[in-house]
Design goal:
Its cofactor is Mn(2+). With 412 residues, the protein is an alpha/beta fold. Helices cover 43% and strands 14% of the residues. It has a single domain, classed as Metallo-dependent phosphatases (Purple Acid Phosphatase, chain A, domain 2, 4-Layer Sandwich), CATH 3.60.21.10. The protein is elongated and about 115 Å long. Bound molecules: zinc ion (ZN).
Amino acid sequence: MKEGALPLGNNFSMRSDLGTMKILHLKKRGCFLLKLLCLVVLMLIFCEFLVYYVVILQCHWPEVKIEALRSSRQSSASVLKAMFLSDTHLLGEIKGHWLDKLRREWQMERAFQTALSLLEPDIVFILGDVFDEGKWSSSQAWADDVRRFQKMFRHPVRTELMVVVGNHDIGFHYEMTPYKLKRFAKVFNFTSGKLIIRKGVNFVMVNSVALDGDGCTICSRAEAKLMKLSHKLNCSQQVREQNHSNKRCNGMEQLPASEPILLQHYPLYRRSDAECIGEDSALPEEKNIPFKEKYDVLSREASQKLLWWFHPRLILSGHTHSACEVLHNGKIPEISVPSFSWRNRNNPSFIMGSITPTDFSLYKCFLPLESRVVTIYCIAGALLGVLILAHLQLFNPPFYFAQHLIRKHKAV
Ligand SMILES: [Zn+2]
């Protein structure tokens, strides 16, 4: 054996020690990476899934007075649980960026599905602008938008889903065509106006885009339909109040004698959002901007017609993306339902209504704040950073850090 050479046995044992150390090191690193992965997965599960349960669990159906029992069967089961949301604006192929689309649609799908499973509404109304580009989308893009909508807003048989038309679905009055209205009607079974009766509650769904009053074919049809509905409702009301019907009501189908609830996309005429209050009302710099008739709100004339035809007890509308409560003629409340999409608001919401033929009570259910979710991601990201730095031992004081580097150098 040459001088200075190590014995063969020693050499072998050193190599095997090095091998074991390497395996241990790899194991340690693997374990650390696994911990990081777990943390990332937990954060994603919370922010993208559980957070909707945590927030929506705090919402509840409001109490409503139930009229003196007429029959022993009248109970809480006779209260209609209705959910109202608006302006989902599913992005189209022209203006929508794929990432924005993916994010917003995931958020809305999770919020809607969680609300359905926790709150179990009887009926859900979407107050228009379901799509962002229905006003100009090709038939193929429309079919794709509809397919995504049906997936996001899928619902069990016990819950009905009704959709009112909005200007982004078929275009503003000047862009609206029979073709666009027909394809909307094919999917949502809604064109001019519709009466929905559930548990003795009358809902009138209005095509407010067609209330321009210029006598266009679609507008005339919509007005004629609404007038017919109003006649039917008023006759039923008269029979109940006066216990007789006039000649014009002869042979008319009897409807529940309950004042209707109007559901439409455009709000009734109001000068601006200046009087609107609440955390989700319009921004202060936007509140005093005057509304344009037939664009931001219905014309004064169309608004008066609706009030006169239907004498509604409540109106729910969308379009403005912000919240507002207005009182028409000093007694008829109108609720502007804010947008359901996080693309339009940091704090989207929906309205929950407990409704009977004679009374109603509303509650606003707020969804997770986008800013809060982003904050959670930032905190989790910072925590991950700290863990990685600590693992690399870069948090030691400079002296130890230098020593660590020297030790590493010597080992090499
Ligand atoms: Zn709109």
